Amino acid sequence: MNLRRLQYFLAVVDAGTVTAAAERIHIAQPALSRQIKTLENELKLRLFEAQGNKLALTPAGRAFIPAARRLMLETQGLEAAADALRTGRVATLVAAATAASVRGFLAPYIATTGPGDPLIITKETSHFALAEALLHGCDFAVSPAPPEPGLATMALGSIPLTAYVAAGHEWALDGVTELPLSVLSGQHAILPSHQSVSRYILDDALNQAHLSFREVSECDDGQTIMALAAAGHGIGVTTDLPAYGTHPIRILAGTDARPGPALRLPLHTAWIPGHFAEDTIRAVARRIRDFLNQQGAVIRDEAKAQEHA
C-alpha cells in the first residue's frame, strides 16, 4: 500500500471535497481522483460514492478512517525514531495533557526552553484518555491521576489547589496566604466542573468537613476562572499559576478551628516502556518537575520522588 495515497485519502476526508483537498495539498484534481481510485483498487474497497455532483464516504470508507490515521501516526513515529537514531537528537516530542495542565504549567514551562531543546507539542486530552493518547501519536503524558499499570512513569510531585481573589479583595489587602475550607465555603466559588480531578479533590474535602459553597459557578478554563476572580465575581479555584493580578490563597482542608493540610493535586508523567526517546522524556520530566519546584508549586520532598518503570 502506498502511504502517500493514504495521505491523499485523509486529505479528502478532512477537506470535505476532492476539489478543496487538491487545492490544500497542491495537486491537480484529476490526479488526486486517480490516486483515490488506485487506493480503492489496492484495498478492494469502495471508499467514496457519488451523491449528485459530490463524493460521499461509504460506510466502509468511514470505518477505514481510524485505521488510516493510526497508520499515518505510526509512520511518523517511525520516521522520528529513525531520525533520532541517526542524529542522536530527539527533535520533537508530543505531550498529552489536560487543558488545565497545559495552561497551568506545561505551556509556561515550554516558554523556558531554548532552540537546542526538543520542540514540545501539546495535545489537550481529558484525563480519562491520557493513556490512550500514548497509543495514538503522543510520546508522553502528564496525568493528574496515577498512570495505568504497564507504563513507565515518573512522579512530578503535586501542585496546590489555589483560591484566587481580586487584588482589591480584603484577603488580598490583608496579605492572607492560606485559609481553611470553612472560611472559603461562605463565598461564591468559581470552580472547574466535575470532569476535573481537582474538583473531585475539592468536593471530597468539602464532604469530609460537611461543608458546601454558598454559590457555585463552573468553568473548565483556569485562565477564565482567574479572570472572573480578578473582576470580582467570586473566588476562583484552579491549579493554574497566578494571572491578571489575582491574589493566591492556599486552600486548607478542615475548619478554622481545626485546619488540615493544603489540598494538592498529584502529577505524574507516563510513557510506553522502550520508547525510542525514553531518555529524553525522562530528562524533560525532570525539568518540568524542577520548573514546578521553582514556582513554589511542588512539595520539596515529593520533587525527589523515586522514578520507576
What does this structure look like?
This protein is elongated. Helix content is 41%, strand content 23%. Strands 7, 8, 9, 10, 11, 12 and 13 form a seven-stranded mixed beta sheet that branches. The longest helix is centred in the N-terminal third of the chain and has 29 residues, at 59-87. It is an alpha/beta fold. β1 (48-51) and β2 form a beta hairpin.
Assembly of the depicted chains: single chain
Structural class: alpha/beta
The total beta strand count reads 14
- The number of helical segments is 11
Helix content: 40-55%
What sequence of helices (H) and strands (E) makes up the elements?
HHHEEHEHEHEEEHEHEHEHEEEEH
Residue windows where pLDDT falls under 50 for at least 5 positions: 297-309
What is the general shape? Answer: elongated
- What's the main sheet like? 7 strands, mixed
Average of the residue pLDDT scores: 85
Radius of gyration: 24 Å
Strand coverage percent: 15-25%
Q: What separation lies between the terminal Cα atoms?
A: 36 Å
Notable characteristics:
5-stranded mixed sheet, elongated, 309 residues, 41% helix, 7-stranded mixed sheet
What topology emerges from the helices and strands here?
Elements: H1 3-15, H2 18-25, H3 29-43, E1 48-51, E2 54-57, H4 59-87, E3 92-97, H5 99-110, E4 119-124, H6 130-133, E5 140-143, E6 152-160, E7 162-165, H7 170-173, E8 178-180, H8 181-184, E9 188-191, H9 197-208, E10 215-218, H10 222-230, E11 235-238, E12 247-254, E13 259-262, E14 264-271, H11 278-294
Parallel strand pairs: 3-4, 3-5, 8-12, 9-10, 9-11
Antiparallel strand pairs: 1-2, 5-14, 6-14, 7-11, 7-12, 12-13
Helix pairs in contact: 1-2, 1-3, 1-4
